[in-house]
Every structure is written in C-alpha cells, then in structure tokens.
Amino acid sequence: MSIEVDLRHRMGAFTLDARFTAPSGITALFGRSGAGKSTIVQAIAGLVRPQAGRIVLGGRVLLDTAAGIDIPRHRRRLGYVFQEGRLFPHLSVRQNLVFGRWFAPRGSAGDDVARVVDLLGIAPLLARRPGHLSGGEKQRVAIGRALLSAPDALLMDEPLAALDDARRAEILPYLERLRDEVRVPILYVSHSVAEIARLATTVVAIADGRVERVGGASDVLSDPSAARLMGGGDAGAVLTARVVAHDPADALTELAGGGGRLFVPLLSDPPGAEVRVRLRADDVMIALDRPLGISALNVLPATITQLVEGRGGRVAIGLACGPDRILARITRRSAMALGLAPGTACFAVLKSVAIARHDLGHG
Amino acid sequence: MMDLSAAEWTAVRLSLVVSVWATVVSLPVGILTALVLARGRFWGRALLSGIVHLPLILPPVVTGYLLLITFGRRGPVGQALESAFGLVLSFDRKGAVLACAIMGFPLMVRAIRLAIEAVDPRLEEAAGTLGAGRVATFLVITLPLCLPGILAGAILGFAKAMGEFGATITFVSNIPGQTQTLPSAIYTFTQVPGGETGALRLTLLAIAIAMAAILGSEVLARRMARRAAG
C-alpha cells in the first residue's frame, strides 16, 4: 500500500506545493521547521483542507479537490501520532488505547491489543491515567492508540520532538520494531537527521514548501547534492553491514560492509547479523595515500564520484566504496589543495566515533 | 422556632420542586446554547449571546411582564399552547418553572460555555483522527471534560431559581399552594404585622438550602476533577 500526495496550499506568504508518493515502510518527511512538513501530514489526515490537491491511499481517494471529494477526517482511517501525545485525560490508558476501536468499521483487521501492548512495552501502564505518565510513556501509548484504530497508514508528526534525549532513546527501539512489524505505510515528520538515518526507508526532503528530493534513505543521505538540505555536517551515509566477529579483549566488533572491514565498539549482535551504521559527513576525512601511523581504525579505499560546493567554504564529496556510497564534508581549501575531482582514487578515513552506536538500529 | 407551619412547608416544597424542574428542563437547552456560543461561527452570534444574557440585566419585573404578555392566556404563545395542548402557564406552577428557568439561564449558559471553551480542541481533533464523528466526539470527549462546568452551571441555575422573585410574582402571582415560592412567602410575611418570625424562619431555611447546594456541588466537582486528573 502507498500514499500518493499532491498538494497546493497558500498561507500568507508561504506556499506549499508538494507532490510525492510514500511507499510502505517509514517515509520520512524531512526539513527545517516551517518547511511545510506538518501541513502536509495535517492535510493527509484531513485536519487542514488544502486549496487544491489530491491524496490517494492504497487506491482509496481521500481528497480530490478537482472532483469535489473530501473524506472527513473520521472516515479517513489514518492513525495520527501528535507531537504532544494528546491522550484523553479523563480516560485510562486502556480506554485510550481501545478508543479508536469503538469507531473502526466492523470486521476491520485491527491489531490485537495484547500484541500492541507487548510491542510498545506498556502493559504496566494500562490501569493508569495519562496524567500519571512520563513524556515517553505518553508517546508510546499515543502510538498504540493510533495503531489500534485499525488505520491504513500511520502519520507521525515529530513524535519525539517534545522529549529529551533519554526519553527519545527509550522510544526509538519501539519505532524500529514498528517499522519492521507493522504492515501499513508510516509517514514520519522530523527535522532530525539522526532520527531519519535510524528509522527511514524513504526520505522526502522538503524546503520552503517544496519537495526537493525523494529517494531511498541511503541514497538521499549519501548524496552530496542533498547534503545542504540534510543540514551540512549532520548529513551522512547510512550503510548496512554484517557482523563478522567480536574481540572482547579490545571491546571491538568487526563488521563487513560493501567497501571493506569496519571496526566499531563491541556489539551484542551475533556474527552474521545485519546492522545499520551511520557515517556523519563531518566525521569522514579524505587522504590521497593510505595513511600510515594514524589512530583511526577504519580506512577504506574509495573513489570520488561528485563534489558539490556548500555553504561556509565547505565541499560535500560523494565517495564510492565498492557498492557503498559515503558522504564526506571537508573545507574547500583542502579539496583544492588535494586536487580532488570526480574519479580521484583516495582513502576515506573514518574517525572511530564515526561508526554509529549499536542503537542506531537494525536495518 | 424552627417548627414550620403547613403553609410554610408548602412554600418550601413548591420552591424545591419548581427549581429542580427549572434546572432539569433548561439544562439540555443550556448545554446546546453554550456549545453554539462557544464553538459556533455564524452571523448573529453576538445577538444570540445578547438575548441569552438579557434576563440577567433586565429588571426581573420586565422579564415577568414580557412572559405574561407572551405566555399569558391572551398572549400569542400562551393561546397557542392552550389550544394545542391545553397547557396554561400563567398563574400556574408550570409558569413559575418557566420564569425561574429563564432567569437562571444566563448564569447556567455562562458557566457551561466557559467549560466548553476550556476543553482543548486538539483533543477533539485527535478523537476525529481515531474515527469519532462530531456527535460522538462531543459525547465522549467534550461533554465528560466539561462535566464540572455543567455541574456548576446547573447549581447556579438552581440557586437562581430558588431565589427568583420578581419575574415569578409578575408572571404567576403569589397564590399559596400554587405559585407561592419561598421568596414570595417571605415577602408575604414581611407585609403583615407579626410576620417577622415566619420571615426569619424561612430566611434561615433558604440559607441552609443554598449552603447545602454549594457544599454538595463543591464535593462533586472535586471528585470529578480528581477523576479527570487521574
């Protein structure tokens, strides 16, 4: 199932003009605040009525202004997770969870309550009231509530933005499980590259109300021409690698990526397991010769594919490491001094911190 | 001193019956009006608000007189009601109910309206995304969340009805056993020599009833607030 979106909407000086298709999996709507991401999901949910547009969910037309179709929000069957949870304060957690079930069409194949409760780890909270939950717990209940309304798609509007880092870290693993276990497409609004790198299968980059880029998460995140959109140094490739061996003595795990061996801090995954690693563009250095006497453990042979001038005297550089694509961001002066050009053979030096922590997630 | 005469008992009982009926009858209308005023966006909303609040500002005698010329036996509505249902309001306790309901209406609507305006519309939006239509959302989200306000409105309406005098005596007069409510009875006592003890007895009773109503609503509201907070 997929969501086709085509919207035009003007609010004061701001114009939204967005067209994209979100396939199954997690599609991240990424952009700065004010770029129009939230307006897009609100329009999909029927909370905002765009001046013109067409929204089709798995063949079901939700909105078609040209044909005069505008399904009211309560018949769109979309689970919406709001930034602030919006749990009903007068109902218990259990009643909040099954709220949507009262209104779901008879015989709709909604998720089993026990399964969702287990998936989100909220069994101990069921009898409580929302007023007694922490921010992270509230958000997990809100996700469960949306899931249990038997939706055809999930819309998540910056569900982690109101939480501190610790609460965020608490929820992210549940979102990964959601991505891997839930069948419906998920539209995930975020302005955090780290969240997207960890969760998204598809990225829709939005800037000033327009879709700047649509593509697979690893393609967009490693594309030098998209680096500016992805926030410069926060941009960076996401690679899938396989666990080869552990070295508990040095507290390191050896991974096999497409471009070579990588050493990361010790993981608990068994050999053969696939992990998702993120390489921040600012954490990738470039050397023309294989560096000797260097503390970095990870040095991969690479070929430069593309150079894109960015802001502040920086250059975003696309590198091919075997089948993998890596993104580096260095100063223009270094790029000139090294004479970097497409086709240049070089070495990508990854500072050890560049390999993402284990909780970056399983791809 | 506190032994009430049969006539005094009748007045107290009549006041309670009239006030309860006035509250019960006006509550659904009051909730609907408050909802329209709080959420409605239409031309003439200010006018509707003005009309609803009018009995609060007009001299009660004027309201009573307007009721008399509208709902009296010769009034247009009064005539229609009598020929259609055989219902006569003037100089009857049903008329007292109408007068009390109208006088308490502005206070009731105001309290409920404030409670509805205090309900976070984003919660209603969330209910919408979960499949609840507008009516269902109102019944399971909005209404329970403004229950304390509705209770406060009902208590205010009831208290106003218990104390209503001007409009009632103008519209339905002061007939013992028929339309003589507690305030009318007190007024009657003060008009006759030696009536001070009776007036004082009824005054103390009126205070006791008012206190009981306020304390009772306080307890209920606190319980509801605790429930809403979890």
Describe the protein:
The complex is a heterodimer of chains A (363) and B (230). Chain A has 363 residues and is α+β, with helices and mostly antiparallel strands. In chain A, 21% of the residues lie in helices and 36% in strands. Chain A is built from 8 helices and 20 strands. In chain A, helix 2 (93-103) runs parallel beside helix 4 (135-148) and helix 4 (135-148) runs parallel beside helix 5. The longest helix of chain B has 34 residues, at 6-39. Chain B starts with 5 loop residues before the first helix and ends with a helix. The mean pLDDT of chain B is 89. Chains A and B meet through strand 7 and helix 2 of A and helix 6, helix 7 and helix 11 of B.
Short description:
Chain A is of the alpha+beta class and 363 residues long. Chain A has helices spanning 37-45, 93-103, 113-120, 135-148, 165-181, 193-199, 217-221, 332-338; strands at 3-11, 14-22, 26-30, 52-57, 60-64, 69-70, 78-81, 153-157, 186-190, 202-207, 210-216, 236-247, 252-257, 260-265, 274-280, 284-287, 298-309, 314-321, 324-331, 345-350.
Q: What percent of the residues of chain B sit in helical stretches (DSSP H or I)?
A: over 70%
The whole-number mean of residue pLDDT values of chain B reads 89
Main sheet summary of chain B: none
Mean of residue pLDDT of chain A? 86
Sheet with most strands: strand arrangement of chain A: 7-8-9-3-10-11
**Poorly predicted tracts of residues of chain B:** none
What portion of residues of chain B belong to β-strands? under 5%
Structural class of chain A: alpha+beta
Assembly of the depicted chains: heterodimer
Q: Give the % helix of chain A.
A: 10-25%
What distance separates the N and C termini of chain A? 21 Å
Q: What descriptors fit this protein?
A:
heterodimer, A: 363 residues, alpha+beta, six-stranded mixed β-sheet, 8 helices, 20 strands, disordered C terminus, B: 230 residues, mainly alpha, 11 helices, 80% helix
